[in-house]
Design goal:
137 residues, mainly alpha, 2 domains, 76% helix, flat
């Protein structure tokens, strides 16, 4: 329970810092009062998980090369996918000549096909990975 609580609180504080940083100022006392405890709680989570008996995450698995590569590539692809969606939103809403000059509804409709495709294909890909495996021979 301690692992879940520290990870949740740590990530919550860091995410609030990242969300409110542009408005409050990145280095103001209020912002740093969220960032520093958030990072300390997250660090405590990793230190706690290394020696906990019923660990939420078995960090020793990160020593296995295939597990580490899969996790790193998952994080990178997730960041890039999220960045792509944000980039499309900014490009679609920027006024011409730099963007398309679309309103919010039209921008959402521009992203709808990709969202629907992921929604439809996601379960099929999950089932095929369970059947075939992540590395088919």
């Amino acid at each position: 329970m301690a692992g879940f609580t520290t990870l949740s609180l740590g990530m919550l504080l860091v995410l609030v810092y990242l969300t409110e940083g542009p408005d409050w100022g990145w280095l103001t006392q209020g912002s740093l009062s969220l960032l520093v405890p958030g990072l300390l709680l997250t660090l405590y989570f990793f230190l706690h998980e290394r020696r906990a008996k019923g660990a939420m995450i078995d960090l020793r698995l990160m020593g296995i090369r295939n597990v580490m590569v899969a996790n790193i590539s998952g994080v990178i692809s997730g960041i890039l996918l999220l960045s792509m969606f944000y980039g499309v939103i900014y490009y679609a809403e920027l006024p011409p000549p730099f963007g398309l000059g679309l309103d919010v509804i039209s921008t959402g409709l521009t992203l709808a096909p990709a969202t629907l495709l992921m929604l439809i294909l996601g379960p099929f890909m999950g089932r095929s990975i369970n059947r075939v495996g992540p590395k088919p021979s």
